[in-house]
Amino acid sequence: MAEISMKRKHCFEDADDVRSRIEGLADKVSDRLGGSWSWQGDEAVCESRGAEARVGYDADSISIDVELPLMLRPLRSKLESKIDEYFERYFG
Questions:
Q1: How far apart are CA 27 and CA 19, in angstroms?
Q2: CA atoms within 13 A on the CB side of 47
Q3: Could you tell me which residues are beta bridge partners of residue 55?
Q4: Which of 58, 68, 61, 70 is nearest to 29 (CA)?
Q5: Which of 14, 30, 64, 90 is the most exposed place for a label (fewest CB within 10 A)?
Q6: What is the C-alpha to C-alpha distance for residues 18 and 57, in angstroms, rounded to an integer?
Q7: How far apart are CA 81 and CA 58, in angstroms?
Q8: 10 closest CA partner among 55, 63, 46, 85
Q9: Confidence tier at 90 by pLDDT (50, 70, 90)
Q10: Number of CB atoms found within 10 A of residue 21's CB
Q11: Mean pLDDT of the chain, nearest integer
Q12: Are the C-beta atoms of residues 22 and 44 closer than 8 Å to each other?
């Protein structure tokens, strides 16, 4: 189960617009975790230092799930707060 799991509704009709915004969010998440991200189907996936973040979308929502290794779990609340901030910035 994900250490951090968030889902927000969006009102974008164009899938390219959603993907572009997800790329911005994925850039921020990968900067925060280190490493890089890539598209795997309809999910942007970032892997770094044993952490994995997946940002996906469907017709009306954006979701992010982050798995943290034991050494990064103390940073969970800080990461969750930043991800929530990024959600607002890119999809709010």
A1: 12
A2: 5
A3: 44, 64
A4: 68
A5: 14
A6: 8
A7: 23
A8: 63
A9: confident
A10: 19
A11: 86
A12: yes
Contact between 31 and 24 (Cβ < 8 Å): no
How many whole angstroms separate alpha carbon 26 and alpha carbon 21?
9
SS3 state of residue 49: coil
State which residues form the domain around 11: 4-91
Taking residue 58's Cβ as centre, other Cβ atoms within 10 Å add up to: 12
Residue 1 has pLDDT above 80, yes or no: no
Number of domains in the chain: 1
Report which residue type is found at 29.
V
Any idea what the CATH number is for the domain that residue 82 is in? 3.30.160.110
pLDDT exceeds 80 at position 69: yes
Whether 5 shows a pLDDT value over 90: the answer reads yes
Residue 36 token pair: 């890089």
Instruction: Name beta bridge partners: 63.
Output: 7, 56
